[in-house]
Amino acid sequence: MKVALELPIVSACDAQRCAYNAAGGCHARAISVGDGAHAACDTFFPSNCRVTSTQVQAGVGACTMRTCRHNVDYECTAEAIRVGVHADHADCLTFDPTC
Q1: Could you report the per-residue pLDDT of 71-85, keeping only the tens digit for each?
Q2: What is each CA distance from 86 to 14, 17, 18, 39, 82, in whole angstroms?
Q3: Distance of CA 97 to the CA centre of its chain
Q4: Residues 6+ apart with CB under 8 A from 13
Q5: Pairing, β 25-26 against β 21-22
Q6: How confident is the model at residue 39 (pLDDT cuts 50, 70, 90)?
Q7: Can you spell out the DSSP letters for 43-67?
Q8: Within 10 A of 47 (CB to CB), how many other CB atoms are there?
């Protein structure tokens, strides 16, 4: 059985070292954002290997960044997000604090 959901898309990803990144796009089925301290992409993992299928465009499955204006009940409501590199990991660049 497959579940069909409407999720905000990951429109671009600059995390070139991530296994899900191919040609600047994220090809995980869905990512999770937020580790409490900042809006990190929790799905990011560095690897020399890349996904082989680029048919899937990632969506945002969950977000624990309650202070983001796009967060409603731990779900992202932005139309799309961008992911970029911060130090040694990837962050949601669409994060927009309400405070």
Answers
A1: 999 999 999 999 999
A2: 10, 12, 13, 10, 13
A3: 17
A4: 20, 21, 24, 25, 26, 58, 82, 83, 84, 90
A5: antiparallel
A6: very high
A7: T--B-S---S------EEEEE--TT
A8: 11
